[in-house]
Write a structure and sequence with these properties.
single chain; about 425 residues; mainly alpha; 15 helices; about 0% strand
């Protein structure tokens, strides 16, 4: 690795650690201020939120980052070309979310409270899209400090809202508190975008916002495969609470039990297990532009060497984290959340997350090679796997363990597919 790449990796690791720490503090304060009921409701609408963010970004962040990294485009014209149509797509998406919010909440998620919260998502989407597009420029230029700084400030703003404002709104019901938390993303995303804007070399001049048809066409030719895979993945995530509540309700379990246990897993256990993934994400983000150039130069040997080093490091790191969580998981949960809800789930899932930490560098390597069609196939495979596992495992485990088993199977299949695909591509 060259010095610039090492510097980028160090900045992303440091920033990733602070961001994960702030994210955990946000989760802790949320659990204390809105309780498990509020967190469960938030977890229930999170897949819908994630799908809407993906649709709003239409695969542009990774595409723009890659185009900027290759240094063969006029970056200013590139961004000015895509901004107008991006905003148009986001406006149309906002209208669609508002129209479908009641159907998604009442009919699909079996929760009347979710409907109003989904309406809040519509107003947040344009802000998340704009900040992601701004970040893509700095990733492509391997300038990681602006991205890290904006992320940290964004999370500090969220933490301040949770710590200072939410307690003063304790007269509101749980639904309204969750609604306010979602809509407050407008503030944090807006401030994040302003921070990124201040680091741009040439500030935006409204007179320069126009588009070049050729650049627009090329960008969307690359972004459509990206979003195709992401949409399938997020549709899978979106269907997750719908399928789980439907299947387990038909078995005879109560909706309250299902939403509560789903909330414990997604609000306490999975975020807790994903804290160490900041190492994986930071290294992957830093390596993307570097691997893109290596692949363009057909230096497959160097790609294999760098990827092998990352996998060995993350495997050792993952084993260490698993040992800690298996031995001290109960204590750590009580320390953070003042309860040990879901500890039995933590003990089951922590060993498999050794593989999960390897997923990000493998996915980013495929993106660096521009093989987004393979990620699309992976998304289809994951969707089929999830649906199949929900149906089959519900027979063996007619409770929330059906969901735990599906997570395990999905991680294993994902890693095997990614490794096989990369080995095939680097043989060319």
């Amino acid at each position: 690795m060259n010095k610039k790449l090492l510097k980028s990796t160090f900045i992303l690791l440091s920033g990733g650690f602070l961001t994960k720490l702030l994210g955990m503090l946000i989760r802790i304060m949320m659990s204390r201020n809105i309780g498990i009921e509020g967190l469960s409701l938030y977890s229930l609408i999170l897949p819908t939120f994630s799908l809407c963010i993906t649709l709003g970004q239409i695969g542009l962040p990774i595409t723009l980052s890659r185009l900027v990294a290759l240094n063969n485009k006029n970056n200013k014209n590139l961004y000015y070309s895509i901004l107008p149509i991006t905003f148009l797509i986001n406006i149309l998406l906002m209208i669609l979310i508002l129209i479908l919010s009641n159907y998604i909440g009442n009919t699909l998620l079996h929760s009347k409270e979710a409907s109003d919260i989904i309406k809040a998502i519509a107003f947040v989407i344009p802000f998340t899209t704009l900040s992601s597009i701004c970040r893509s420029y700095f990733f492509g230029k391997e300038r990681m400090f602006p991205h890290v700084l904006s992320n940290i400030i964004e999370n500090i703003i969220r933490l301040m809202i949770i710590m200072i404002i939410i307690p003063k709104l304790n007269y509101l019901n749980t639904k309204d508190l969750v609604f306010f938390i979602v809509i407050s993303n407008i503030i944090s995303e807006g401030i994040s975008t302003i921070i990124l804007y201040l680091f741009l070399p040439n500030k935006i001049n409204i007179k320069n916002i126009s588009y070049e048809k050729k650049l627009l066409k090329e960008t969307f030719q690359l972004s459509i495969p990206n979003i195709s895979g992401s949409i399938i993945g997020n549709i899978s995530y979106f269907l997750e609470p719908i399928l789980i509540t439907t299947i387990l309700t038909n078995i005879g379990l109560s909706t309250n039990y299902i939403i509560r246990e789903y909330g414990i897993i997604n609000s306490y256990i999975l975020p807790f297990l994903m804290i160490p993934s900041f190492f994986s994400i930071a290294i992957s983000q830093a390596i993307l532009p570097y691997l893109s150039r290596l692949y363009q130069e057909r230096n497959y040997k160097k790609i294999k060497q760098q990827l092998t080093k990352i996998i060995i490091f993350l495997s050792i790191f993952g084993v260490m984290m698993t040992i800690i969580l298996e031995l001290k998981g109960d204590f750590l949960l009580k320390l953070l959340y003042k309860n040990s809800l879901g500890y039995n789930y933590l003990k089951i899932l922590s060993p498999i997350f050794i593989l999960y930490y390897l997923e990000h560098p493998l996915v980013f390597t495929i993106q660096a090679m521009g093989k987004t069609k393979d990620l699309f196939r992976l998304s289809i495979l994951n969707l089929i796997t999830k649906i199949t596992c929900y149906l089959l495992l519900s027979i063996l485990f007619p409770n929330i363990l059906m969901y735990i088993g599906t997570i395990i199977v999905n991680i294993i299949i994902t890693i095997f597919y990614l490794v096989f695909t990369i080995r095939q591509k680097l043989r060319q």
